[in-house]
Amino acid sequence: MSMPFPLFLLARIGSAVALLAVATYYLLASIPFAYYHFLQFPHFVWMPVFIRLNALIMLAGVVGSSLTVRDLPVPMKPAVRVLVSTGALTVMWMAAMTCWPVLQSYENAALMAFVPIVLLGAAGGIDFAALCQQRARVRRLSAPVADLITPAAIAGGLVGCLYLLRGLIAASGSQSLDRSQLVVAGVITLTAHQVLFLTPALLMAGLQAIATRRSWSPWWESLSLDGSVAIFLAWFIKRCLLTALILEDRRAAALSVLLAVALVIYWRSLLWRSVRTGHHGAFQQSLLPIASTGRSRTVVVIMCVLLLAVGVGIVPDVLRLADWGLTLQKLVVLATWIGSFALVVALPQSWRRLTAGAAALTIVVALTLGASVLRAYDDTRPADHAGSTIDIELAVEQYATFDTSLLVILDLVRPVLSDRSFFETLRTVGDATADPSLRPVPLRLVQNNRTTSSYRPHIFVIVVDSLRPDYLSPYNEDVWFTPSIQAFAGDSIVFRHAFTQYAGTGLSQPALWAGGLIQRAMYIKPFSAVDNLDRLLQMGGYRRYMSIDQILSIILEDDANLTRLDTHLTHPDREEQAYKFDICATVNELTGRLDGDRNDRRPIFFYSQPQNLHIRLIPHSKYSSSELVRRGSSQFFRPTVTTLGEVDRCFGNLIAYLKRTRMYDDSIIVLTSDHGDAYGEGGQWGHAFYLGPETLRVPLIMHVPERLREGRTWDSENTALLSDVTPTLYDLLGYTPQVTNDLLGQPLLRRVDDQGHAGRDNYLVQSSYGRVFGLLNPHGEWLYVADANHLSEQFFDLRSGKRRGTALTPAERIKYRKWLLADISRLNSYYTSGSRE
User: What number of H helices and E strands is found in the chain?
Assistant: First the structure.
């Protein structure tokens, strides 16, 4: 008995969502960094439930798919049984993996990511085969070419204008682009959207002409249409959705093609089910849901208008703080593209002409305005810039951070326009140490345990996640909300140009403990081979008080002399609060523990990484996620200002306690961060998948007892690295770190008679979570970034104070590329085949 179509549609869509959700889960589980940061320690309340029930969700998807193919002809029954059997075996294997963790591995997860997609395509493919057996009639494409090209041109103009309007509003508010750059970028984005929509339209028209001329079978005609859609969809998935993941190219290509084919087959079978009579051409059949007449057309128009309004005007603001890789926003862009085309097709002819006229008028106005502004720019620019021109590539790249639709278009065309050879080489050398199966290679700051000092000061290290230096009064005179940190800096050393070499906690925190550059893999075991800070604490006989976050729980291998703080946040029954460390609660627990252990004469080591300022947690404040406040020449993100005021108060409580208990003068106190966050500068938010001044600059304020300062010198204006903290602690405790290994950090306070190390030409920097690498000038004057995910490059002049990139000449590109590849190769050489000490 045939299932009613509404129920059939619900079952088909529900099963597709379930299968795709399971495939996404296993895709994340097959990538080390994604597994550690999204699955092993979930950040969302619903995710632990999904992880526990993933086998049941898979079962629901299989059952839903099998129910929709029960009414097929008898010859198709064996195929249906194969589908059901395969699904049942998959569910049992998933349940076994859940019950017996020994079966879990990255390789098994990688394989399992393909299975739900295969089942999805198989469900649609069985329908396709059944229709072939029934000889369902599909007539040849009969619509005139203009019926395809004209709606595409109008839709391209419509969606281009909408995103241009949003982009101009956002870019003008950030002041990261001047007027001439905005005009150039605006003209290009309108042109790009027209090309984007007209290219497939002309391709379809060409296929129609070829099919007519060569008298193709209607099935071949339909196959050519579906194949073209699948090719575009596969390219979109690979270039726009999978770039945020460190995924091997062949696997990414296979996954993209398989998913695209499965989705097209599934959609086509759904359409064929809805039009059983088969009296429509392939193209008309695809448009039937939106090209109908009467009330249904009105519903389609209303839905498309709402989609465009929400997708362009609301969703980007809602997602920007949580969607670091822009994956969800790019999916929304694809939906708005489809929605704009569907809207134009569904409109009556009179409304379609009106829409076309409005879009054409907008484009003409934009072109006219662009020409006039460019003339004004040419007439008014200073004489010393008379020969200068606008760098179009730079203007477009910077504007695209405000226009997600243009960003997606750039992602699609960059492989054609960029230097693929360089970026392929960069991916290859960058991934050389990203394999967790690599053997550990020792990285030691000292070769023996001999020390020149018996003095053991207390050590307090507070690494405030995502804390930016320009949000602290010692670095920015416009800051009014950190008085305790200002007072602490008064008798401490403030390193004014401090940077992390890893944008992202995943590698930044382990690099701090290692005191140098480490492998990109998360993580090579045992980590003790490179864990110099833990080695120092053991040699010094320290009793440790630590908040153990998800990363330390993996890399910290010695529980001796360890008192764990904030253990309630690591309890399995409180997954929604997992590792959301609050400095106020941590300080209160620490001081209570120290009061209880006051008879213990061993030196104290305290380490915590408060999460108060992390961008995933900030939006839950009472303020709007986009609210900004200006003070002097600075602009601040208000939720961070409010939260940081509380962090400052609790940090002040810790300092007051140390002074009250007379430990302050015998303590090394380090206040720093693992990375910064972008709060809308240049259209960027967060830190996970790109490099920039905001994500690499960190505060570094170090209180050192007077007796340890004697006989030492330092320059607070020199560039300091987060990986210099551990070598500095070694040196202060009387252990002389080696200075011959370029991968290691250097002591920031040097003995007067120490000539030191000549230093590196440049510092290698990189993203913890993506194939994004860069070079930092040792004097902190410039930053070069090469993004192998998006095939783009940026250069920042850090002396100018500007937060936007500047242009590079071809000669400069060659120079920086050569330096970058050489530095990464030097790192790879040490950890794969080079020196071991």
Answer: 29, 20
The type of residue at 252 is: A
Averaged pLDDT score across all residues of the chain: 82
Q: What is the CA radius of gyration of the chain?
A: 30
Q: Do 544 and 565 contact (CB within 8 A), yes or no?
A: no
Asked if residues 738 and 447 have their Cβ atoms less than 8 Å apart, the reply is yes
- Read off the pLDDT of residues 39-62 as tens digits, 9 standing for 90 and up: 766 666 677 788 888 889 999 988
Among left, alpha and beta (phi > 0; psi -120 to 50; other), residue 723 is alpha
Among 530, 515, 534, residue whose Cα is nearest residue 727: 515
CB-based contacts of 591: which residues, under 8 Å, 6+ apart?
653, 654, 657
**Whole-number Å distance between alpha carbons of 252 and 233:** 13
* Interatomic CA distance for residues 678 and 668, integer angstroms: 30
pTM: 0.83
User: Quick one: angle between helices 404-417 and 179-214, nearest 10?
Assistant: 70
Element containing residue 462 per DSSP (H, E): strand 458-463
Q: Within a 10 A sphere around the Cβ of 39, how many other Cβ atoms?
A: 19
Residue 70 pLDDT? 66
Burial code (b: 16+ CB inside 10 Å, e: under 16) for 315-343 equals bbeebbbebbbbbbbbbbbbebbebbbbb
Q: Which long-range contacts (CB under 8 A, 24 or more apart) does 217-222 make?
A: 218/137, 218/138, 218/139, 218/140, 218/281, 218/282, 219/132, 219/138, 221/138, 221/140, 221/141, 221/281, 221/282, 222/138, 222/268, 222/282
Inter-CA distances, 636 with 389, 546, 629, 679, Å: 33, 31, 5, 8
Per-residue model confidence (pLDDT) at position 398: 81
DSSP notation for 303-354: HHHHHHHHHHHTHHHHHTTT-TT-HHHHHHHHHHHHHHHHHHHHS-HHHHHH
How confident is the model over 261-291, as pLDDT tens digits? 999 888 877 777 666 544 444 444 454 444 5
Q: How far apart are CA 818 and CA 357, in angstroms?
A: 51
Q: Quick one: angle between helices 145-174 and 179-214, nearest 10?
A: 160
Could you count the other beta carbons within 10 Å of the beta carbon of residue 367? 15
Kindly report the CATH class assigned to 458-752+761-832: alpha beta
Three-state SS across 123-183?
HHHHHHHHHHHCCCCCECCCCCHHHHHHHHHHHHHHHHHHHHHHHHHHHHHHCCCCHHHHH
CB 201 within 8 A of CB 148: yes
Contact present, 265 and 69 (Cβ < 8 Å): no
Q: What is the mean pLDDT of residues 707-728?
A: 92
Structure tokens at 418: 């960029």
Q: To the nearest 5 percent, what fractions of the chain are helix, strand and coil?
A: 60, 10, 30
Tokens 């890789």 correspond to what residue? 325
Question: Tokens 């070419």 identify what position?
Answer: 145
Distance CA 188, CA 87 (A): 48
Q: Please give the average per-residue pLDDT across 291-295, as a whole number.
A: 53
90, 115 contact by CB (below 8 A): yes
Domain boundaries, the chain: 1-135, 458-752+761-832
DSSP letter at 810? H
Residue 568 has pLDDT above 90, yes or no: no
- Residue type, position 36, single letter: Y
> Mean pLDDT lowest for which of 6-20, 182-196, 615-629, 700-714?
615-629
CB within 8 A of 320, min separation 6: which ones?
Answer: 329, 625, 685
